[in-house]
Amino acid sequence: MWKAGMRWMLLILGSLIGAGYASGQEIWQFFGVESGLAIFLFTVMFSLSAYVVMKISYKVQSTHFLPVLEHLMGPLLAKIYDVLIVFYLFSTTTVMIAGGGVTLQMYKLPFWAGVALLCGVTVCLFFWDINGILSVNTVLIPILVAGLLYALFSFQTTHHHTWTIDLTRQYNWPASITFTSLNILSVVAILSSVGKDMKGLGEAKIASVASGLIFGVISFVYNETLVELAGSLSQYEIPLFAVLEGAPYPLFLCMTAVLCLAIYTTTVAGVFGLSSRLLAFVRLPRWMVVFLLLAAMVPFTSFGFSDLIAFLYPIYGLLNLYLLVCLLLYPILSKWKKYKIILKK
């Protein structure tokens, strides 16, 4: 149970810690000063929502997200969110690919060559389907998380910054709602595809709590670091490079590699969720579906990376509020339905 729970935890983290998050763009877009309470609330809501998704996915033995959506909000709204999730996965995976091209430019690789390289290794992984994804995540996600935390704590150690949380000045707490709603859509898309592979709800509890805690801790440390650098962030396309300013060149190269890993794992998770949905309509090998999807995404990467983040993410965060409410109310409504059935008997 613990081993399986850890595997799903790594799948969740792989879908979340991508270009927008690891680069700092996503955190700075939603949080900033007076956000300690917001990050705590996000951690709680995210863990609960992830568990509900996994519980429903296991219950209906789903292979893609439509059955989970129908169980959660009914057939009519499920069809609307079905289309929304497809557009979400398509656009956010495009953001990942664009971020990969920008990041690999640090290695003197042309933007389009970086995009082609990222797409190529993504397609290759899907020759092994979900087993390949889980195996790669087992290796890459621990490296990704450790590398990101090392860079952040190295900055804090060098600059001797003291964290202070004033509970009377936590006015940015509503950001926790939009940030959770933004990230929960990818969780619904990914975890809805693994219902048949789960053996029990114990796995869901381990995966949801562990991923929420790890995601919350990284978000808090990252946000505090960016708050300290607020005056200079406008000079950088990627805030992570502001954190690395003045760091030894080997560390800079290592963190650029970590950012590439984050982009890769999230790209893989995005096209996995999207291909799982499309396989309900076409009879093709998954790797072929992934290849066609990436070919359709590449032309849209010509838009600026930071422009895509700033435009798309707040919109998706607002659109997903209803989905988040459904997930948070699901445990209460489920118990109420059982209670009514008992009363009728």
TrEMBL record:
The chain crosses the membrane at residues 34-54, 80-103, 109-128, 135-153, 173-194, 206-223, 249-275, 287-305, 311-333. InterPro entries: YkvI-like. Coiled coil: none annotated. Keywords: Membrane, Transmembrane, Transmembrane helix. This is Integral membrane protein putative transporter.
